[in-house]
Structure to design on (355 residues):
């Protein structure tokens, strides 16, 4: 139950439907904790006309708040109870955040103009001007070594027509997800060996699989691929993806011009197996950022650009990748490609004079 300006609302986080919470409806739902026949509901309310009870039950069923035994929605409910080991807190976020409404480019610009004129700006960094500074750290060299690679990392959304190399795609994938070895836990077979990668993972559960939407990669046909982290191979799924990269990324038109889009898909069961507390859901989401950063550094080493994005069409992703709505989700996409030569100038970069 949630509360709005018009009063209490019932919310089904799996279907993302909300309805006003009438007292009788709430009481009906509270009693429907197991499969219940219509006549049993009538016995519960001897002072209410059966036609009224039937009408309310039908309405709640149509609205998705009651399910009928043997129907597809009932099977989804059974699967959720069997699979989802975290509580409703994580479930509310996981299912409630799927397929949100997104602003198009014009709407986003209008929103930013509105915010800039109606809301005071928020500081994007904090200085030590109010503190006693005991140490002025030496200025780092941002032109060479690891920091030089990191300093070249930029999110550029305009690309050269020249394809990115297969070698650079391999490095991006391996840096983010490649299995370098195993940790022997001496547990029973099936759970004994934990894969180790170049990115941290809570409990070494490594819940992510990568899919590649290849668009402009040399010696790699256009299409959708699965990356096997254990084999370091690309398995072709289709040369005719059901949706374009732009459609998958809810109208981000530059996606169809990238070299490739790396899709990070979470498999929740891998983490749930060890961690029953819903805080593991937070850890799982953070891991996508760790993988994305490694992908970005490998790309920068090849003079490529990466743009991570969580603006995703969840329904399209589930159709494209044949995902299980409960067990899996596309959490993050990373666009990779050769940036346009003048891209850095377009971004109006201003060096930090406080270093």
């Amino acid at each position: 139950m949630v509360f709005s300006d018009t009063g209490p609302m019932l919310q089904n986080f799996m279907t993302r439907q909300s309805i006003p919470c009438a007292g009788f409806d709430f009481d009906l739902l509270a009693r429907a904790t197991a499969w219940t026949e219509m006549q049993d509901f009538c016995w519960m309310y001897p002072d209410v006309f059966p036609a009224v009870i039937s009408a309310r039950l039908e309405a709640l069923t149509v609205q998705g708040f009651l399910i009928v035994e043997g129907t597809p929605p009932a099977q989804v409910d059974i699967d959720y109870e069997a699979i989802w080991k975290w509580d409703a807190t994580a479930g509310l976020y996981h299912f409630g955040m799927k397929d949100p409404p997104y602003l198009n480019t014009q709407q986003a610009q209008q929103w930013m103009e509105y915010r800039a004129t109606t809301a005071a700006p928020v500081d994007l960094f904090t200085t030590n001007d109010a503190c006693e500074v005991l140490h002025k750290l030496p200025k780092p060299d941002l032109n060479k070594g690891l920091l030089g690679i990191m300093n070249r990392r930029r999110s550029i959304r305009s690309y050269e027509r020249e394809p990115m190399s297969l070698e650079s795609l391999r490095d991006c994938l391996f840096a983010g997800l490649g299995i370098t070895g195993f940790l022997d836990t001496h547990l029973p077979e099936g759970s004994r060996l934990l894969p180790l990668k170049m990115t941290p993972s809570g409990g070494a559960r490594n819940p992510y699989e990568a899919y590649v939407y290849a668009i402009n990669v040399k010696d790699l046909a256009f299409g959708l691929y699965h990356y096997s982290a254990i084999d370091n191979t690309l398995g072709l799924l289709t040369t005719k993806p059901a949706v374009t990269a732009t459609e998958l990324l809810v109208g981000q038109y530059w996606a169809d011009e990238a070299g490739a889009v790396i899709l990070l898909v979470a498999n929740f069961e891998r983490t749930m197996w060890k961690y029953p507390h819903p805080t593991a859901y937070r850890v799982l989401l953070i891991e996508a950022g760790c993988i994305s950063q490694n992908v970005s550094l490998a790309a920068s080493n090849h003079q490529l650009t990466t743009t991570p994005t969580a603006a995703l069409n969840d329904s399209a992703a589930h159709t494209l990748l044949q995902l299980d709505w409960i067990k899996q989700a596309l959490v993050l996409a990373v666009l990779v490609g050769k940036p346009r030569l003048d891209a850095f100038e377009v971004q109006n970069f201003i060096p930090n004079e406080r270093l």
